[in-house]
Amino acid sequence: MLHAYSQSGKLDDVKFVFDNMPVRNEVSWNTIITAYAQIGHFQETMALAAFDAMPERNVVSWTALLQAYAMIGDVALAIASFQRMPQCNLVSWTAMLTTLAQGGRLGDAKESKDIYDYVGRENVVAGNAMIQAYAQNGHLEKSQTIFHMMPLKNRTVFSWNALLVAYAQNGHARNGVILFRDMVLDGSCKPDDVSFASILSACGHAGRVRDAVEHFTGMISDHFVQPSCEHFHCMVSVLGRAGRLVEAESLIYSMPFVPDSIAWKTLLSCCRMYNDVERAEHAAECASALDLHASSSPFVLLGNLYTEELLGGVHSGMIDDDHQSLIIE
């Protein structure tokens, strides 16, 4: 019951049940500590009061405190608790590694390497945390090294996606395309919606329109992944930035759901690149009608386009690498 109330976010009920328990064991103490963090009411005094009141503490108790600090992103207190632990197990080492990763402290922290060396390459959670953290901190080479050090059987879709996202965010489209191809050829993990969002974003920023079109059309036909709004947004941006504004607009109308304001704002931004005033006016009207809370922002972009048009126009689009029509059935 204590665990059930904790999962449902009912802190008052959790505390009532805990306070009225005739006998409290390690599980109940650990649950109350974790509950404070999960429900968002984790205060140092409350957590430490519960922790200090425990008649006996073991590695599970210390790990619960460590994970609680991790949940609220307090890396300093997590590290301090970790250093005070009389003994550690695989769970606590992995929890500390994940905490450093979530707090952005992994890339340059010596303790992270020490922890990973202890945990070992066989630990999937630790390996994925290292890949993601190094990538997020701009250490792509280290991220790649960890990925290739992982045994093939340990690579999950999260492992592949962590590196794909890193390539997309850091402008390494070619590496992203190669990694995506290797993922497909490997066959142990099927690309999911995150995989496709990453590869489309990478191709879009690098102007690899042909690759983007092939991956987008292959989502359904080859991998049976249904495109979401995010995937359509990526493709509208890819086509629009390449100057293929007619196709970008047609793609918006071909969405299997009602287009949102983001799609129209994306097209509007692309129209500004190529001074397509008429299409930009239509995109601004559609975006404004769909986003009442920010109805003025599309017209601000449109106003900037009018100004640029009066000044002679500015063309800042990317060059289409290889024109290929996008047909969505």
TrEMBL record:
Swiss-Prot/TrEMBL keywords? Repeat
Alphabetized Pfam families for the sequence? PPR (PF01535)
Does the record carry Repeat as a key word? yes
Annotated InterPro entries = PPR_At4g14850-like_plant, PPR_rpt, TPR-like_helical_dom_sf
PPR repeat positions in this chain? 25-61, 156-190
**One GO molecular-function annotation for this sequence?**
RNA binding
Gene Ontology biological process terms in this record: RNA modification; system development
Repeat listed as a keyword: yes
Q: Which protein, by its recorded name, is this?
A: Pentacotripeptide-repeat region of PRORP domain-containing protein
